[in-house]
Amino acid sequence: MSSPRIGQARQQAGAQSKQSGNVSAGNAAKLQATNLNFYYGAFKALHNISLEMHANRITALIGPSGCGKSTFLRTLNRISETVRHTRLEGEVLLDGENVTQLDVTSLRRRVGMVFQRPNPFPKSIFDNIAYGLRMNRMAPHGQLADKVEQSLRRAALWEEVKDKLHQSAFALSGGQQQRLCIARALAVDPEVLLLDEPCSALDPIATAKIEDLMFSLKDQCTMVIVTHNMQQAARVADFTGFFLMGKMVEYDVTTVIFKTPSKKETEDYVTGRFG
Amino acid sequence: MSPHLTWRKLVNNVMLIGTGLCAALSVSALVAILGYLIYNGGKSVDWNFFTKLPLSPGELGGGMANAILGSLQIVSLAGAIGIPVGFFAGVYLSEFEEKYFASIVRYMADLLNGVPSIVVGILAWTVVVVPMRQFSALAGSLALSVMLIPVVARSTEQFLREVPVSLREGALALGATKWRTIATVVVPAGSKGILTGIILGMARISGESAPLLFTSLNNQFWSAGWTHPTASLPVMIYLRAVSPYDDWHRQAWAAGLVLIALVLTANIAARLVLSRGVSLPK
Predict the structure, then answer these.
(1) Which are the contacts of B181, defined by CB distance < 8 A and separation ≥ 6?
(2) Number of domains forming the structure of chain B
(3) In the sheet that A29-40 helps form, which strands lie side by side, from edge to edge?
(4) How many other CB atoms are found less than 10 A from the CB of residue A271?
């Protein structure tokens, strides 16, 4: 089931690399991290990470548990700041602007996030999607229902929930809940979508739906996905970064990472010799 | 069987019986109180008890309508003061905890929870009754609210802490401010638990007599207002029970039955709310 899609993703990524010649000359960098160090108390979780995430491309971060890939992702929308006793060095630029200079609530409106486990609010399906719209005053009176429908359609969930919009979001299946969370994030028109192992709690069919969704969203936003699943990175990502023990070992076009990595550690990891 | 095995089985059986006995004892206290109250109080609870004022000693009959209303008044005002203060204190403890201040507040709340209720009564007497030169429902409410605050604060804190971090992050990641996250996601998610804590706290203070003895005092008639002495069920029970008159003793039993019925109803209501599970929207 998955092999044709892997091929498709690789062809796409390969075509890009041929077009652009090399990685850094792809689309303009939407997000750019420079010399990031991150500390939990005295523990240094990220060591000097520099990474460009290109506009309208999917960047995957892979690596074994505890390698810092989620920590890195969480610095991009500054949700890392909600954990106490943490410290960030270096800078993250969004369209060239330092994210620490931006107002944190407007930054998070622009850089949406989907979490490892679906986390719908204890509200109705409708109110979950409307939450960000109401809060950011993005839906003038009378347009709210349209915007909610539009967001659910973008997340390919509308047909499944249109008759039960006012039921609890908890009544949905895990895969539907995760697409609801994606729809909720999309509702506020983010420029970037961060996905922190969005499929780790889902079955393969629900996973395939989320991946299809990611392809369809590429023309609308830039995506960065953390995943444990290397096949998933190979299927969906244009670029892949390999993290190990808080360092970024290698970053390149996805096909290069999976076929001809330049570092020994990367090769060992993607060929399943460890991790 | 080896002696060792025999010994192990013996210990097992002794402990099993011992714990079972203690469990039965703890329940039997409630059963005994309820049975005794129903037996003694049931005979004296009639329509007059709910509608008539108390009569002078020697006259048979009369009721405690003023004490029932007085208790409702005093407990309602105590709730109006204690619930918001306790709730917001609990929100602070759970959500805004900063360094040492929160742990000091938490420790003080636990201490306050353990302060004997009569001491709380003395506080209200000093702060309200003495300056106003008048026993009053207001003073009683203040004393009860002081007892309610730590209960509500700690239970609110506990239930808010049980709300998963992922829900908070979900709201923050959409651009919500911290307060907005708390008000629109965290508190609704913990609302059933918080409500249960509030109901249990209210049930507890409505049975307190000691803090009311020298704050709201008592009144044979309808209360003349918040700043005047006001009858309440717990104080009425105490005064009737220590009197030498048989008819008053019967009335004390009846008042006890009515009070415990109110408290049990609140308790059962709280459990029904909780048993519907985590806070799910309709």
Answers:
(1) B168, B171, B172
(2) 1
(3) A43-54, A29-40, A86-94, A97-98
(4) 11
Distance of CA A126 to the CA centre of its chain: 23
3-state SS of B112-167? Answer: HHHCCHHHHHHHHHHHHHHHHCCCCHHHHHHHHHHHHHHHHHHHHHHHHHCCCHHH
Q: Is residue B21 part of a domain?
A: no
Instruction: Give, to the nearest 10 degrees, the angle between helix B117-124 and helix B137-161.
Output: 130
Helix axes of B233-241 and B65-95: crossing angle, nearest 10 degrees: 130
Q: Are strands A111-114 and A239-244 parallel, antiparallel or unpaired?
A: unpaired
User: Is B102 inside any structural domain?
Assistant: yes
Q: Tell me if A71 sits within 8 A of A81, measured CB to CB.
A: no
Residue among A10, A69, A93 nearest A194 (CA)? A69
Token digits of residue B30: 């409630």
User: B281–A188: do the CB atoms touch at under 8 Å?
Assistant: no
CB contact under 8 A, B170 and A170: no
Domain that holds residue B140: 74-275
ipTM metric: 0.84
Predicted confidence (pLDDT) per residue in B98-115, tens digit: 768 888 889 999 999 999
Tokens representing B70? 């007085």
Task: Give this prediction's pTM.
Answer: 0.82
Average pLDDT over chain B, rounded to an integer: 89
Q: What is the mean pLDDT of chain A?
A: 87
Question: Could you give the 3-state DSSP secondary structure of residue B216?
Answer: coil
Which CATH number belongs to the domain containing residue B150 in this structure? 1.10.3720.10
CA of B281 vs chain A CAs: smallest distance (Å): 5
CA A203 to chain centre: 19
Q: A190 with A136: CB under 8 angstroms?
A: no
Cα gap B237→B258, rounded to integer Å:
11
Could you say which of A79, A121, A168 has the minimum Cβ distance to residue B167? A121
B contacts of A112 (beta carbons < 8 Å): 173-174
Asked if the Cβ–Cβ distance from B174 to A170 is below 8 Å, we say no
Asked whether residue B281 is assigned to any structural domain, the reply reads no
Please report whether residue B90 resides in a domain: yes
H or E stretch including B188? helix B187-206
